[in-house]
Structures are given as C-alpha cells and as structure tokens.
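Box 3.1 A note on notation
Throughout this textbook, protein chains are presented in two layers. The first layer is the amino acid sequence; the second is a token string describing backbone geometry. Keep the layers aligned when reading.
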Amino acid sequence: MQSNKISYRLGPTESREERFLGCKGGEQRTKQNAMALIDVQERMAPKKDRLGLSCFAFHMAVGAFVLAGWLISSTEALLFYLVLLPAMATQWALNRGSCVINNIETWFRTGRWRDREQGEDGRFLVMLCDWLFAMRPDPGALDRLSYFVVLFLWVLGLGHFFSLVLA
C-alpha cells in the first residue's frame, strides 16, 4: 500500500508522524495542524466579468434550447434542432471534449484557441455541477452522460418531427 507521507530527513527530536502532520518537537497533534495539510480545491463558478457572464448566458441559452427544443411545433425549427444536436456532439468529439463557446471565450482572454490553465476548455459542465451542486463528477462519466442525453433528446425530436409531418 502506498503511503501518503513524504520522504525527508528527520530532525533529532521529530518522528515521521510529527513531521507529516506539521507538529514540531513534540507539539500535541491538533485538528488545526492536521487540517492545514488537506488540499482543498476552490469552488468553480462562472467568471464574473462581462465576457464571462455573456458567454455563460449564451451557453445557458443554447443549453435551454437543446433541452426543450424537441417540443417545438415548427417543422423548420425541428429540422434545425435535429441537425444541431449531432453537430454539437460531433464538435465535442473532434474538439477533445471542449465546447466551441468555451474556446471562443479562451481565445478572447488569452489569444489562444485552447488554454487548459486559464480557460474553461472542456470544463463547463464540471463547473456547472460544482457551482450548483457542490460536487465535481468524473469528466469521463459526465461526457458519457452528455452524449446519452443528446442522443435521447435527438430521438425525442425525431419522433416529434415525424408526428408533425405525418399528422
């Protein structure tokens, strides 16, 4: 079993456990000095500047259309919807899991199409889950869920389209 302890040279009065927990020379182990070593990730949220909020609002509008678009009664709008969903999923697959909206925001911010350090490339849904539900799901599982939901919504849209055309 792999140990979480770091290799180092002990001082004359330190034990390995005291060094790991941040206790010095026989200090009592407390919750405070043990908690100082826990790596806490900051909560993700939409960027609060004008560009970030604009991209977030546009992302949410596209998401709302994707979730509810299959209910539209216009055959032309349903055809657009039925083309949009596979195009969106294909774009995710070809763009390494990143949405073009995030790439455009990153390009405006950094001058590069993709920047994993500064941008939100491929992390929009993870950010949304963390912001709304205080949890960060596995990106692979989130990708599989996203593709399944898009397929399910596309089938619903196709069924609605045929019901309108055949009626």
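The chain has seven helices and no strands. Residues 106 and 118 are 7 Å apart (CA to CA).
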